[in-house]
Amino acid sequence: MGAAPHARRGGAARTPTGPQRGRGATRLIALHDVSVHFGAVHALRGVTLHIAPGESVALIGGNGCGKSTLLRAVHGLIATSAGQLQAPPRAAQAMLFQRPWMLRTTVQRNIAIGLWLRGVPWADAKARALQALERVQLAPLAERSARGLSGGQQQRVALARAWAQRPQLLLLDEPTASLDPHAKHEVEALMQEFTGAPAETGAAPLTMVFASHNLGQVKRLARRVVYLEQGRVLADLPVQDFFNRDVLRAVSREADLFLKGELL
Ligand SMILES: Nc1ncnc2c1ncn2[C@@H]1O[C@H](COP(=O)(O)OP(=O)(O)OP(=O)(O)O)[C@@H](O)[C@H]1O
After folding, report:
1. Which residues does the UniProt record annotate as the domain ABC transporter (predicted)?
2. How far is the CA of 50 from the centre of ligand 1 (A)?
3. Does ligand 1 have an atom closer than 6 angstroms to the CB of 226?
4. Which ipTM score applies to this complex?
């Protein structure tokens, strides 16, 4: 992507990565003993986590366990307090939030402006924006005001905007939490489609990390589940192992109790 690396922030080392080799595995994201403090609040405590290109990883855990903080730290939106964090430069990442943010302009321009700001000539940016809208089946709404769309449509525009940027890494913070079941299904289908195939022919597979309170969604979209409690990673398992209570109980009693509570 040739983008500028993140500046080093806060008390911890933060270095940009492309896919790197380490301990025999390729890594796109590597956190080593990362902590994030907000004053007296310890949002992340000694998190060590490696994510390889093409993985689809769900972050789960109760309110305030640190999911958003982890995503925001990887995206470079907040400073880490200690430890080392390696991630692709922000220009190689896209992040979606529970409530999509839209510029006060048309749907197509919402996507094109982001590309233009990254150096894509305006005519090409508009053409790529339209392609991206076709991908999420919203091309007929290209000239509509983005803020006038429904929440589900806005989230699809946000996904199109992310996809148009051809990121290596897609971070999503509870992307369907405020959507009705139909819109949730449409957004999930796009998430699945984007991670199922490279963003463009010959490109590296897209890596997806998402926070969710929806265990059905986790089962449908994740290949791996990371369970957080009070800022610590207590379980990090392939999705089928996470939902196998015997395996989970052996790894973390706390994670098993959480799952039991959620399944009641
Ligand atoms: N900017 C901030 N300033 C102070 N405290 C913060 C800030 N952001 C997060 N926190 C605190 O850090 C902890 C972790 O919050 P975080 O938002 O990462 O949790 P979460 O797992 O995403 O929660 P939820 O599921 O409710 O969205 C919480 O105690 C939260 O109150």
Report:
1. 29-255
2. 22
3. no
4. 0.98
